[in-house]
Structure formats: C-alpha cells, structure tokens
Write a structure and sequence with these properties.
heterodimer; A: 141 residues; alpha/beta; Rossmann fold; 4 strands; globular; B: 329 residues; 5-stranded parallel sheet; binds FE2/S2 (inorganic) cluster
C-alpha cells in the first residue's frame, strides 16, 4: 500500500486560512492528507505545537501566514519566520529531516497557490517516507 | 534519643543513579545544619557516606523509608533496579537535581546511541587498543562463577520515565538552603504540596529574579559567545547578545551563575507553564532578533551554534522529542 503522509498545517486566520477557504469554495482539488489548524496569526505558532505534532505522528508540518508586510498584527509573520529558522536548525540536530517542516506565505486571494502548495509539499513528504519520530519518542530503548 | 525528643525520627535515604556526585555533596553542604538533619532523621541508606548495602534496602519493609532523595538519571539496568526498589521502600520519592528531574548532563547522551558510545569508548578513542574487539558483557562465566555487569541502555531516562515520582527538586545541584527548607517543612509536619509538584524552587521565572537591567524591547542583531564581549556586569545578557536560559527557567537558585557574571544555563528547568524549555527559548529568542529580512534572519540564527545542546543542556530526556531520532542525519 502506498504511504499516505499525515500533514499537519497551521494557517493564520487572516490570510492563509482564507486562502485555503477560497481553494475550497473554488472547488479546487488538492491532497487530502492535510489537517488544517487555524491560528489567529502565524506568530501564534509556538514551537511546542510543531514538536508536539511531530511527536504525535505528523510526517510533515506546513505553516502558512500572510505575506511579509501584510500580517494583521504587523510583525507576527516575521516572528514566525525567525522561529522557523531556529526550529529547522534544531530538528536537524535532532536527526529529523529539516524538509519535514515548511513555511510559506499565502494570501487570502491565493487559493490556487495554496492547493498547489499542499500537493507539492505532500508529494515531497511522500517521497521522504514515513517519519519515525512518533515511534522513537514513545518507546524507551 | 533524649526523652523530650520523643517524636519518631524520619527515615531518609539518598541515592545516586547516573550522576556526578554533586547532588550528594549538596546534601553534605548543609554544614553544621547536618546536626539539625540528624536530630530529626536517620539516614538509612546513602552510598556516598554510609556503608549500607543494596541487600539491606531489599530487607526493608515496603514504605519503610519516609523520604528518598534520588539523584542522577536512569542510564542502565542498575539505576533502573534501584529506582524501582527505592520506590517500593519509600513513602515520598523525590527526584533530586536536574538529572533525576529532566535527565541533566548525562542526558546529553541522548544525542548519541548506545552503539556509538560503546564504539567510541571501547574501540575508537585514541588511548584504546582493543583488537578483539571486546565489549562489556552483562554476563560472563569464569571458573569461579558468573560475573555480571548492568546493561547500558540506549536511552538516558528521567526518574519519572522509570517510576512514579512524588516531588521534583530541581537544580545542578539543588541549592542546599532549599533542601533544608523542604526538609524542615516535612519534619514539622507542614502540609505538603500536591503530588507531582516542583518543590524547593519558585513558580516564577529566572528573569523575574534576576537583577540585571532589562528593557522591554530587546533588539539582537548578533549572537556572541561570552568571551567575545566585555560584559558590563549589569545589562541583561540577552541584550548583550549572549544566550541566557533565563526566559525558559524557573527561579529559586538565587541567580548564582548570573551573580557570578555567567549566563543562566537552565539547570532549574522550565516553570510550570512551559512544557518544553527549548521550544520556549526558540520562541523567546526569535522575538528578540532585530531583523525582518529573511536572509539576514538566517544569518543571525546561524550564529547560535548549537541550539539543541544549549537550550536542552539539562533537559534533553525530559523534553518533547526526548532523544535524537535518527543518528545518521
Ligand atoms: S495574521 Fe497572518 S501572519 Fe499574522
């Protein structure tokens, strides 16, 4: 059976979630692997959310926020970007492929771009194969 | 025991798992207050100071010991056996010190694996000649009988990943004054906090305790190592570009490192509302970086040479990811 990745995604309320909504109302088809969690801002995505998602079995994590300069709270997306770089570095040190975490800016009008992004990211995680994080973290050896 | 002191003495044990011995020494650091301790408690088991054997502990009834301070992480089968045995014989089991609490310095072993560590120690280190090669065996038969060694585990574990723990007393080592406070509270029969609490430390964070000057908006454009700056002795370390674990650390240690002009390294572990110290640090540090330019942000972040080792120096086994997932990456 082909591996179906579990993708957890955090979308900011004001742009990216609305963009995803637009993809839906435009009846665009995209990979069903994604589980969307709406946050008020990409700046609300605490690194704990990312680590917990990996621990609970996410194969890939996609964070989306407003384009630079467009954040509803002015600089939440910049905070997110800085955390993202730190997290990437950290998960690599922890023996996790950094490609499993991805950040992208999606505006409220970018339904099509969102659908394509989900397909692309799901494809890249499918290629990478299942994550071992859940199994390793939950079994003492 | 004199007549007026008719209250039964507490029975107390101190044991070390994978530890450096500093926690046991911190107990000795009560100095002359040791007389107060021994006036109120009999030390029934304490390998660093007393010649009591494991068999003596095995012979005790269940719950015979009132309080055990278990320091050190659980690294091998002997540590695990003793943790289970002491749990069975003890009423109040305290994870004493960073290693029992969160894994501590030995917990950094979780960046590696059993295989890699044994290979390094018994095969590859430059002072080793081992043509066999021979590795430690847990069981070896000789004509006089069977020799045994504890099994070395792949994972360093915290005490509560091994047995049920009543309280946590953090620190590397815990401050001796805090130990005395906790001890006297137990002796005086004060009401104990709910099971699972962190004791001998504060609820608030290290930054609330720290007396260095802080501004509300920190703007960091460059991270540096302590030797690269001339510390003015009074400005917040983070504001000088030095990574300080204050934002993700519980207060209660008396800011000893900071008062010695060294940044906090996080041995007291995170406050109650912080599930993962590293996640909190990543969050806090990211907020302070003074740049909105993606390339520049990457450059500034790259100056933090070892986020995993710095943010989880004392807490890797107790953190969300617990260990390095794939040692080949
Ligand atoms: S509101 Fe969209 S990123 Fe802040």
């Amino acid at each position: 059976m082909e591996f179906e990745p579990t993708i957890v995604s955090f979308l900011c309320n004001w742009c990216s979630y609305t963009g995803a909504d637009l993809a839906g109302t435009s009846r665009l088809k995209y990979a069903h692997n994604i589980r969307i969690i709406r946050t008020m801002c990409s700046g609300r995505v605490d690194p704990t959310f990312v680590l917990e998602s990996f621990k609970k079995g996410a194969d890939g994590i996609l964070i989306c926020g407003c384009h630079p300069g467009d954040c509803h709270y002015h600089e939440g997306n910049y905070k997110c970007l800085r955390r993202y770089h730190l997290l990437k570095k950290y998960i690599k040190q922890m023996g996790i492929e950094p490609e499993r975490l991805h950040l992208e800016w999606i505006s409220a009008s970018e339904g099509k771009q969102f659908a394509e992004l989900v397909d692309r990211f799901t494809g890249s995680i499918r290629e990478l194969g299942p994550s071992r994080i859940k199994e390793v973290v939950n079994t003492l050896s | 025991m004199s007549k007026e002191n008719s209250k039964p003495k507490l029975k107390m044990a101190v044991y070390w798992g994978a530890a450096c011995g500093g926690c046991c020494v911190s107990v000795l650091d009560v100095h002359e207050k040791l007389f107060d301790v021994t006036a109120n408690a009999d030390l029934v088991f304490w390998p660093i100071a007393l010649d009591t054997k494991y068999a003596d502990v095995e012979a005790m009834e269940d719950d015979y010991i009132d309080i055990t301070l278990f320091n050190g992480a659980v690294r091998n089968s002997e540590n695990e056996h003793m943790a289970k045995l002491l749990r069975q014989k003890t009423r109040i089991l305290v994870a004493y010190g960073s290693c029992a609490h969160m894994g501590g310095i030995p917990g950094l072993g979780n960046f590696s694996s059993k295989e890699a560590i044994l290979k390094q120690v018994y095969l590859e280190s430059s002072s080793t000649i081992n043509p066999g090669p021979v590795y430690p065996e847990t069981r070896h038969e000789v004509k006089e009988g069977v020799l045994s060694l504890p099994e070395f585990y792949n994972d360093v574990r915290t005490l509560d990943q091994t047995v049920d723990v009543d309280y946590y007393m953090p620190g590397c080592p815990p401050q001796t004054e805090r130990l005395l406070e906790v001890f006297m509270a137990i002796v005086n029969g004060s009401e104990l906090p709910p099971k699972g609490s962190v004791i001998g430390a504060l609820d608030k964070g290290q930054c609330d305790e720290c007396e260095r000057k802080k501004s509300d908006n920190k703007h960091i454009r460059e991270f540096k190592r302590p030797f690269e700056i001339e510390d003015d002795g009074e400005t917040c370390f983070l504001e000088q570009g030095i990574i300080c674990m204050g934002p993700a650390t519980r207060g209660g240690c008396g800011c000893r490192c900071i008062e010695g002009n060294a940044p906090c390294r996080g041995c007291y572990g995170p406050p109650d509302d912080v599930p993962d110290p590293g996640a909190k640090m990543m969050s806090a540090v990211a907020t302070m970086i003074d740049s909105d330019d993606p390339d520049e942000i990457e450059e500034i972040v790259s100056q933090i040479a070892d986020p995993a080792g710095t943010f989880y120096r004392f807490s890797l086994p107790g953190s969300i990811l617990r260990r390095k997932i794939n040692t080949d990456i």
